Amino acid sequence: MRTALAFAVSAALVAGTALGLAPAAQAAGTDASLRFVDIAGEGGTVLKANVVTPAGADGSARYPVIVLPTSWAMPQIEYLAQARKLADSGYVVVSYNSRGFWQSGGEIETAGPKDIADASLVIDWALANTPADPAKVGMAGVSYGAGISLLAAAHDKRIKAVAALSGWADLIDSIYSGRTQHLQAAALLGGAGYLTGRPGPELRQILNDFLSSNLDKEDEMIAWGRARSAATHLDALNANRPAIMLGNAWGDTIFPPNQFASFYEKLSGPKRLEFRPGDHATAEATGLLGLPNDTWTNAHRWFDHYLKGADNGVDREQPVQLKPRSDAGYEGYADWKSVNANQRKFALRDSEHLWANVDSGANGGVTMLSNLLDQFFQAPPVASIPLLPRAFAGVWQSERYATEQRVRGTARLHTTVTPTAESGTFVAYLYDVGPLGVGKLVTNAPYTFHDRTPGKAFAVDLDLFSTAYDVPAGHRLALVVDTVDPLYIEHNPTGAQLTFSSPTADPSYVSVPLRAE
């Protein structure tokens, strides 16, 4: 049922995006020049592309060029509204359908070596067939396009600037964080791939092994994901030193923000990190329709400075820009460490004994829906904390706060777990609890273990997904743990139990990062 739902959601998402972008495609004909072309990718595979050049470009002048690989399952008109804006401000823009999707040839390689070779061949084509300046090459993309752009920049020194939006730097830490399969995310991507493209045999096998929890293939799956992660190629990126802008949403249920933040800290070249409310790709969505959009505005400023040399101040701003999940404006920080600098702990003193395999009612919501509601209506998933069944959910609460608590960054759970089976899964949730006991979800994260000795306790440190959330005065925070969440695949054998304790020698706690006053 879950897979069927993912297919249906994928179809609606793809169809809705295509229909929404069609008017933009029809309108693209007044100033900048638009043409649709075929580009030979790796092995001669045909990549369907479109090229937008500035008005009046006659070959007498060279322009910065930006290459845009499409998102997973999206058609080649995805970026047309932004391409026209870029062309109107003096860029050549080449957008192409990633191999294996829609009319482009080949099979889906999931940002494999052929995809990286395709990106360089598209740059070759642009330099040979448009008035593109070989010294001013940029790449950008949303989601899949972001991942390919980062990987291409590690392999092609010609790429001087990148805007990677709602993408991944670490594929394993994205959909296998906490050693837990992110079920809805993987099913959504797999379903969309089958609906709009041609998954290759390697991807089909990976999806099958991943969704069937084939632990015998775990090392192979991790190696496959690592090879497709920009974090693995960090040394090459730092040697090439492209200017990299990273943008993501706090509630991205496909590529959570933690992995982008960790990657950002390790980059040594010019860099910028932006987080906003929303879910996967929703922070950029209005910009794809040509509407005002902060993410795309800053991406344009990024390229203007690092490709055109414009003195627009983007290099002098605080490089970490965060928009809380509220009506508050942007906050600037010198680095990601500064976001997490002010930690406040609350103790988890009481032991909790849980029966596994039953959903307590606490959950992280639905991929592509729950955090979209939070983005526009500040309506995250909720649970009645007093009514959660204690046989299936552990609950610990902080004191009631006298002043507003501005949670910023990555909360961490430290606890001790004693299982009755060698494998198991639990999910930790942090809630903002009001006077009536209704909890609004602040953040969550899953954790899975294997090969543990039944009855033997072990310590767990779990980073919850990074966020920026304001807890009102008079509220408290609650940590809830249970063993079932529709977002994730759980590994609790039938009848399994988990005990969460706080030994005197190693007390359990939640460490919450708060914005300094």
UniProtKB/TrEMBL annotation:
PANTHER family under this entry? DIENELACTONE HYDROLASE DOMAIN-CONTAINING PROTEIN-RELATED, POLYKETIDE TRANSFERASE AF380
Protein family (similarity comment): Belongs to the AB hydrolase superfamily.
Q: What is this protein called?
A: Acyl esterase
InterPro entries recorded for this chain? AB_hydrolase_fold (IPR029058), FrsA_esterase (IPR050261), Galactose-bd-like_sf (IPR008979), Xaa-Pro-like_dom (IPR000383), Xaa-Pro_dipept_C (IPR013736)
Upper classification of the organism: Bacteria, Bacillati, Actinomycetota, Actinomycetes, Kitasatosporales
Statement: the UniProt record of this protein carries the keyword Nucleotide-binding: no
Q: Which residues form the signal peptide?
A: 1-27
Matching SMART domains: PepX_C (SM00939)
Q: Name one Pfam family in it.
A: PepX_C
Keyword check for Flavoprotein, yes or no. Answer: no
Q: A Gene Ontology molecular-function term?
A: dipeptidyl-peptidase activity
> Xaa-Pro dipeptidyl-peptidase C-terminal domain: from which residue to which, for each copy?
300-510
* Species for this entry: Streptomyces showdoensis
Query: Which controlled-vocabulary keywords does the entry list?
Result: Hydrolase, Signal
